[in-house]
């Protein structure tokens, strides 16, 4: 499924660099897919890369020693992650185009007053996140960072 080679992580055949640079280098700390069932078929429609400033670890120290699966179930951890005052970057790549109405179903719960915050919660929202594979990957990688 996901292969790391030449500083790239392949997420369902979509390459994600392990690091990007905006104002400073950001590390790929989580990745996964979103999918949905359409007419009894599971359709993968986006690949997701979550890039974070490595300093984010300073803001989640109270979870040091927790395993990835424990972090993945801890919504307080993801709230702290979202609110941490560090640079965050989400790369979302379309795998399969779907109809606007089908994608709209995914956005129904987004509140218009704060779309950016809700999108962060959509992809970084712990047990309420739209992509369990991304949440699990992010939790595992941050658990490893916290163990250092």
From TrEMBL:
Gene3D superfamilies (UniProt xref): 1.10.890.20, 3.50.70.10
GO biological process: flavonoid biosynthetic process
Domain of life: Eukaryota
Molecular function terms, GO-annotated: intramolecular lyase activity
Stored SUPFAM superfamilies: Chalcone isomerase (SSF54626)
Domain Chalcone isomerase: 15-120
InterPro entries in the record: Chalcone_isomerase (IPR016087), Chalcone_isomerase_3-sand (IPR016088), Chalcone_isomerase_bundle_sf (IPR016089), Chalcone_isomerase_sf (IPR036298), CHI3-like (IPR044191)
PANTHER family (alphabetical): CHALCONE--FLAVANONE ISOMERASE 3-RELATED, CHALCONE--FLAVONONE ISOMERASE 3-RELATED
Family designation: Belongs to the chalcone isomerase family.
This protein's name: Chalcone-flavonone isomerase family protein
The species this protein was found in: Cannabis sativa
